[in-house]
Amino acid sequence: MRTTSLAAALVAATAVLAACSTAGTGTTPVSDTVSGKKITFIPGVSGDSFYITMQCGIQDEARKLGMTVDTQAPQSFDPSLQTPIVNAAAAKRPDAILVAPTDATAMLPPLLRAKQAGSAIGLVDTTLQDTSIATTAVSTDNTAAGAAAADALAKLIGEKGKVLVIAFQAGASTSDQRQHGFEEQIKKYPGIVDVGAQINNNDPAKAASIVSATLAAHPDLAGIFATNQFAAQGAATGLRNSGKVGAVQVVGFDAGPVQVEQLQQGAVQALIAQQPYQIGVSAVDQIANGLTGKPVTKTIPSGTVTITRDTLAQPASQQALYKTTC
């Protein structure tokens, strides 16, 4: 009997040592089910219909699999605000963290610590310069989306004239990629002159000021590509203040209620809509695969839908519109 007890104690001790050695090494435990597993979702910013729609996809898919979701969002798209949220989440050691990094470089250290604490990391929407810490990365193909915006704007201005890019934040992978995709694609139109890109730091008022200053320097400006909803809101305001609404064509990004209203009112002539709900679903599925030892797709690109006032009522456009509640 003493021999049996000693054997049991040795087994228990071995299990404890194994568990201790796993924690802090960046190795996520594998189990045969994800039922009861916990996900923390950390979007780029709170109150954004894009991330709300993504949250709906995450919650719906997690519920199907028996997982729970806790969402914590910064008030601004700012790594200094997102970092403490990641740190707090890591301290609770959820089974997985799905995150939209607000900076490709600055968010790597806190997410690496979270992984070392035992949480699987899934990247959604934005990404990191080093994606090796992530189980999966699911996002819009933002370079292709920027190219689609260039094609849409070129069509709107008859493939001639001056165009401006308003990028929302330097260092944010999505902003950089959309800008790059646009700039490369617009070169294919010899009649179009790119007057350069300016950054509004997610501030609509700054975007409005950029538009006003650009119009002063280039009164013949023909078009604007606004790389997110805040840039588009500010662009519309700047054009309204200058009496140029409709005279300068605007292609905006995303398809939340504000963007759709701008489209209907004619302040914006086209929208590049992402598929945030499906991004959320795919991210949960890949995280679940990783937690149960199944094959994982490391990178999943998502497409976009170009919406104009003429196509807004079409089923494909309606399905691409974002939600404000789940």
SSE blueprint and pairings:
Layout: H1 2-22, E1 38-42, H2 49-65, E2 68-71, H3 79-92, E3 96-99, H4 108-116, E4 120-124, E5 136-140, H5 142-156, E6 161-167, H6 173-186, E7 192-199, H7 204-217, E8 221-226, H8 229-242, E9 249-253, H9 257-265, E10 270-273, H10 276-291, E11 299-302, E12 305-308, H11 315-320
Parallel strand pairs: 1-2, 1-3, 3-4, 4-5, 5-11, 6-7, 6-8, 8-9, 9-10
Antiparallel strand pairs: 10-12
Description:
One of its GO terms (cellular component) is cell envelope. Pfam families: Peripla_BP_4. Residues 39-294 form the Periplasmic binding protein domain. The chain has 326 residues and is α/β, with parallel strands linked by helices. It folds into two domains: 31-140 and 276-302, 3-Layer(aba) Sandwich (Rossmann fold), CATH 3.40.50; 142-274 and 308-320, 3-Layer(aba) Sandwich (Rossmann fold). Helices cover 46% and strands 19% of the residues. The protein contains eleven helices and twelve strands. The chain has helices spanning 2-22, 49-65, 79-92, 108-116, 142-156, 173-186, 204-217, 229-242, 257-265, 276-291, 315-320; strands spanning 38-42, 68-71, 96-99, 120-124, 136-140, 161-167, 192-199, 221-226, 249-253, 270-273, 299-302, 305-308. The strands form two sheets. The protein has a six-stranded parallel sheet with strand order 2-1-3-4-5-11, sandwiched between helices. A six-stranded mixed sheet has the order 7-6-8-9-10-12, sandwiched between helices. Strand 3 (96-99), helix 4 and strand 4 (120-124) form a beta-alpha-beta unit. Helix 2 runs parallel beside helix 10 (276-291), helix 5 (142-156) crosses helix 6 (173-186) and helix 7 packs across helix 8 (229-242). The radius of gyration is 23 Å and the shape is elongated.
